[in-house]
């Protein structure tokens, strides 16, 4: 049973009846689910990840518009804390009198603001460009088991779709860095015999290639330790998984480096062609991702975003 399944089951068996019986007036106001930090919110939890912060628990999100008084919030927190201390063989973590930070009663505005800087998620274009994508992933992951009012669902839905100009700006920057690190610097480092720098170039290329793929698919790349796991589920790009892993885990001796240089070009072509489809541009005859990056940047409709440095939105 995954953490998300455990959370949903615990809520349905104990949480939902508790809210219905003790807070009937709030039943249609509160949003309940599991989202935020933690591998279980992404569906990536396993036996190893369960050594900390893993429990039968869920989040009770209180919309800002609910205007609940402190006494009601306290009663709600105490009611959550009073739920069974063990469920299906899993023990719950201690909850403080004022609620937990990952489970329990959470103001929806606090949850969204902690990850985006705005309680309603209404980001400006520049905020979209400068906000690390792993925070957007945390704001929109997991599942809401109930949200009758729909306000939190609406915010999550809005944040799930990055504006097209912003997405193209991020993609353009990642394509340029792929060109610099992979198509250009990797070979130069190998020629110099600087294998350490070559490996850093390979790592930078892989990181930016993955980010570009997430940009193209309209998805957010999560925190780095989950990035490869998320990439394995990225549709047609998942076929690049083994190649990208090889690029950052193999040596840089003469024979292997030659193979890696060829693979870098293969990945560049695959990502470049996908980027062409998204931005409606043609692959340059040079097959240079640098040329493609600027071509993609030129398609951005908002001149203020288009005229920013091409690397402005790159993390």
Describe this structure in words.
Strands 5-2-1-6 form a 4-stranded mixed beta sheet, with helices on both faces. A two-stranded antiparallel ribbon has the order 3-4. The chain has 315 residues and is α+β, with helices and mostly antiparallel strands. The radius of gyration is 23 Å and the shape is elongated. The longest helix has 29 residues, at 164-192. It has helices spanning 3-22, 39-42, 70-81, 108-116, 125-130, 133-140, 151-159, 164-192, 195-217, 224-231, 241-249, 254-279, 289-297, 303-306, and strands at residues 31-34, 59-62, 86-87, 90-91, 104-107, 143-147. The protein folds into 2 domains: 3-159, Beta Polymerase, domain 2; 164-306.
Question: What is this structure's SSE topology?
Answer:
Elements: H1 3-22, E1 31-34, H2 39-42, E2 59-62, H3 70-81, E3 86-87, E4 90-91, E5 104-107, H4 108-116, H5 125-130, H6 133-140, E6 143-147, H7 151-159, H8 164-192, H9 195-217, H10 224-231, H11 241-249, H12 254-279, H13 289-297, H14 303-306
Parallel strand pairs: 2-5
Antiparallel strand pairs: 1-2, 1-6, 3-4
The number of distinct structural domains comes to: 2
Number of strands: 6
Order of H and E elements: HEHEHEEEHHHEHHHHHHHH
| Strand arrangement in the largest pleated sheet | 5-2-1-6
Parts with pLDDT < 50 across at least 5 consecutive residues? none
Computed Rg: 23 Å
- Please summarize the sheet with the most strands: 4 strands, mixed
CATH architecture of the largest domain: 2-Layer Sandwich
Question: Which oligomeric state applies?
Answer: single chain
Helicity level: 55-70%
Number of helices: 14
Task: Return the structural class.
Answer: alpha+beta
């Amino acid at each position: 049973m995954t953490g998300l399944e455990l959370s949903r089951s615990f809520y349905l068996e104990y949480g939902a009846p508790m809210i219905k019986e003790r807070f009937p007036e709030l039943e249609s106001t509160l949003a309940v689910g599991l989202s935020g930090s933690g591998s279980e919110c992404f569906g990536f939890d396993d036996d190893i990840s369960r050594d900390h912060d893993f429990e039968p628990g869920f989040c009770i999100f209180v919309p800002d518009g609910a205007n609940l008084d402190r006494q009601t919030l306290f009663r709600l927190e105490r009611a959550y804390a009073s739920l069974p201390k063990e469920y299906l063989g899993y023990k719950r973590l201690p909850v403080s009198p004022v609620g937990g930070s990952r489970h329990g009663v959470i103001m929806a505005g606090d949850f969204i603001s902690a990850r985006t800087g705005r309680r309603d998620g209404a980001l400006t274009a520049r905020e979209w460009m400068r906000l690390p994508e792993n925070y957007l992933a945390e704001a929109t992951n997991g599942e809401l088991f109930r949200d009758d009012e729909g306000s939190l669902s609406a915010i999550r839905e809005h944040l799930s779709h990055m504006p097209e100009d912003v997405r193209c700006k991020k993609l353009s920057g990642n394509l340029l860095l792929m060109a610099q690190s992979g198509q250009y610097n990797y070979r130069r480092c190998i020629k110099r015999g600087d294998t350490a720098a070559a490996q850093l170039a390979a790592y930078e290329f892989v990181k930016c290639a993955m980010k570009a793929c997430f940009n193209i698919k309209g998805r957010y790349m999560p925190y780095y330790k989950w990035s490869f796991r998320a990439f394995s589920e990225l549709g047609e790009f998942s076929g690049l998984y083994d190649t990208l892993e090889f690029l950052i885990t193999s040596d840089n001796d003469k024979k292997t480096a030659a193979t890696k240089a060829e693979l870098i070009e293969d990945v560049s072509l695959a990502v470049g062609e996908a980027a062409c489809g998204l931005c409606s541009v043609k692959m340059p005859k040079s097959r240079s991702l640098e040329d493609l990056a600027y071509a993609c940047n030129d398609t951005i409709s908002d001149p203020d975003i288009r005229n920013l440095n091409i690397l402005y939105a790159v993390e």
